[in-house]
């Protein structure tokens, strides 16, 4: 039994490492924020599988239900103090923002605060207590296994990140960092890192070639090599992650998997931000996706993939200056991408040959509302409902849910491109899983003659939801003395 327990534990901690993912941060500081349902439609149409919220907006969490999108929620910096001081505040937070939504909404992590040590150092003493209180509340709700607790750290707490082999956390934070790492280790959680090569590049004034920051090939005379390990660094992103692995390993040789909770490149900037261009943002984000999805880790941890959340979904025009702060978004609020950009290349199973999603009856939806939706779809909606007639392939099981699913989906596949939505008074949800079974082939299935459209059609903009400040990336100071440009 003991052995089995250990094996399960090992498997548990390593299952994390199978197949890297790229997710996206959803900041909401926009003047025209789409409704939660529209945000989710945009995520689905671009086949985004993982998101991080900067808070725990209950409307968005509810819209994310039954979507298979994995969700990281956040405790805001304003909430950390109260939760760190009060186990009951932590329990209340977990009940309201996590327990109330799982499993329909797949919440898998809680980010406690944002760059607390570098932005609000006075709150450092309550950070670990807050993490512990939240974890205890998860244990009480039997949610500690599926939901991990951690805290995003800025590269600012690693004063000299290059060369990675000699990087260490700022020793002022020695005891707090030690407590955090122990917590992450004992709870089988992961280290959350915000790493912006944009700042690493800009702040070093041309010491590093821009190709290094943008994951572009380096000429033989510009290879970046760590003089101690002789590891070659193809990208600053890899070097930042390795600097963090090395800083962690100074604590009893710990290896705690790193997830990059934020990285990105601004598509526009002010007069003194000339590298903040659409071209560079396009290059960075597309190359980042390729880099992460190749599944390899950084040179010091080659087998641990670098799961990463891009910063961010939309430009947040309400953010304060500098202008680059408002320009990290990869999609406009109407869902079209700011530049050629695709997360469809995700190695995830759901991206495969799907037509862009199916529309089915929501589990547990009110039967009489479903019947109304079914009648509407097959009537005014002009769905082809012949397959759910007696004797036809989709008649059995003869339930209103099943028939509504078929009709809703047929309507959705035909009408999506001209504005048809998957809603039906809230009784419908989209799914990436092909609902076809046996000889009942749903419209839009790869086996069906009728293909689907991918572009979401959004109605008028909804009212802005809860606005919460997103993350402000911090400036990364790089000490130049250790840079090695090997001249071959
Ligand atoms: C939630 O995500 C986890 C991690 O990928 C996965 O194992 C689990 O099956 C998902 N749960 C649901 C209900 O989709
Ligand atoms: C380390 O952190 C302390 C406290 O925030 C700060 O005063 C100091 O400048 C930092 N050291 C370096 C080298 O960044
Ligand atoms: C933490 O600080 C103590 C005392 O300043 C030092 O001896 C120790 O090596 C530090 N630990 C790490 C991992 O830096
Ligand atoms: C994956 O990316 C790393 C870092 O750029 C690179 O060293 C490695 O060769 C790549 N692996 C494959 C299989 O492309
Ligand atoms: C979406 O919005 C952007 C920016 O406002 C605009 O340039 C683009 O044409 C819009 N796309 C569609 C399909 O409406
Ligand atoms: C999707 O299916 C078509 C036709 O069966 C095939 O040509 C194409 O390669 C498939 N695409 C992917 C991404 O599997
Ligand atoms: C379903 O909706 C109808 C009409 O909105 C309502 O009268 C009925 O009480 C609801 N049934 C259930 C079980 O909620
Ligand atoms: C309706 O669907 C059936 C198959 O379920 C098909 O045979 C028929 O041609 C379709 N009718 C129209 C008008 O598309
Ligand atoms: C689609 O067709 C293939 C080959 O005929 C079959 O193996 C597969 O199960 C079908 N898929 C569905 C969803 O019916």
From TrEMBL:
An annotated GO cellular component: plasma membrane
UniProt entry keywords in alphabetical sequence: Cell membrane, Disulfide bond, Glycoprotein, Glycosidase, GPI-anchor, Hydrolase, Lipoprotein, Membrane, Plant defense, Signal
Catalytic activity: Hydrolysis of (1->3)-beta-D-glucosidic linkages in (1->3)-beta-D-glucans
One Gene Ontology term from the biological process aspect of the record: carbohydrate metabolic process
Domain of life: Eukaryota
Membrane topology of the entry: Lipid-anchor; GPI-anchor
Residue span(s) of domain X8: 357-442
Keyword Transmembrane: no
Enzyme Commission no: 3.2.1.39
Subcellular location: Cell membrane
Signal peptide interval: 1-19
GO molecular function, one term: glucan endo-1,3-beta-D-glucosidase activity
Xref: InterPro entries: GH, Glyco_hydro_17, Glyco_hydro_17_plant, X8
Keyword Phosphoprotein applies: no
Family: Belongs to the glycosyl hydrolase 17 family.
Protein name: glucan endo-1,3-beta-D-glucosidase
Native organism: Deinandra increscens subsp. villosa
């Amino acid at each position: 039994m003991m052995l089995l327990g250990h094996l399960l534990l090992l498997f548990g901690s390593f299952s994390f490492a199978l197949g890297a993912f790229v997710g996206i941060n959803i900041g909401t500081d926009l003047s025209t924020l789409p409704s939660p349902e529209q945000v989710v439609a945009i995520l689905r149409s671009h086949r985004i599988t993982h998101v991080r919220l900067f808070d725990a907006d209950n409307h968005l969490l509810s819209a994310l239900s039954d979507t298979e999108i994995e969700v990281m929620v956040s405790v805001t910096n304003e909430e950390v103090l109260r939760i760190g001081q009060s186990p009951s505040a932590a329990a209340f937070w977990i009940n309201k923002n996590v327990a109330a939504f799982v499993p329909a909404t797949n919440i898998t992590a809680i980010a406690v605060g944002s760059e607390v040590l570098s932005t609000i150092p006075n709150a450092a003493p309550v950070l670990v207590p807050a993490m512990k209180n939240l974890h205890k509340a998860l244990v009480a709700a039997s949610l500690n296994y599926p939901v991990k607790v951690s805290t995003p750290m800025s590269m600012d707490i690693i004063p000299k990140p290059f060369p990675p082999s000699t990087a260490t956390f700022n020793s002022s934070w020695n005891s707090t960092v030690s407590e955090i790492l122990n917590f992450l280790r004992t709870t089988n959680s992961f280290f959350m890192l915000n790493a912006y090569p944009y700042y690493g590049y800009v702040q070093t004034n041309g010491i590093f070639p821009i190709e290094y920051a943008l994951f572009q090939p380096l000429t033989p005379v510009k290879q970046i090599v760590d003089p101690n390990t002789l590891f070659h660094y193809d990208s600053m992103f890899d070097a930042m992650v390795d600097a963090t692995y090395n800083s962690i390993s100074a604590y009893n040789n710990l290896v705690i998997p790193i997830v990059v909770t934020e990285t990105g490149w601004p598509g526009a900037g002010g007069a003194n931000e000339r590298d903040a261009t659409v071209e560079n943002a396009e290059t960075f984000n597309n190359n980042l996706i390729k880099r992460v999805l190749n599944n390899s880790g950084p040179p010091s941890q080659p087998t641990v993939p670098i799961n990463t959340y891009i910063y961010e979904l939309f430009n947040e025009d309400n953010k304060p200056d500098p202008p680059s702060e408002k320009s990290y978004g990869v999609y406009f609020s109407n869902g079209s991408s700011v530049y050629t950009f695709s997360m469809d290349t995700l190695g995830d199973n759901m991206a495969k040959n799907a037509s862009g999603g199916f529309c089915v009856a929501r589990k547990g939806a009110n039967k009489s509302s479903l019947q109304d939706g079914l009648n509407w779809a097959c009537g005014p909606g002009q769905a082809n409902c012949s397959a759910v007639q007696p004797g036809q392939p989709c008649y059995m099981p003869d339930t209103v849910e099943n028939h509504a699913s078929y009709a809703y989906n047929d309507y959705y596949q035909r009408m999506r491109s001209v504005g048809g939505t998957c809603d039906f008074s809230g009784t419908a949800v989209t799914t990436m899983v092909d609902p076809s079974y046996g000889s009942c082939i749903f419209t839009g299935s790869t086996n069906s003659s009728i293909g689907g459209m991918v572009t979401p059609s959004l109605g008028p903009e909804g009212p802005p939801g809860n606005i919460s400040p997103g993350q402000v990336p911090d400036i990364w100071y790089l000490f130049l003395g250790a840079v090695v440009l090997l001249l071959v």
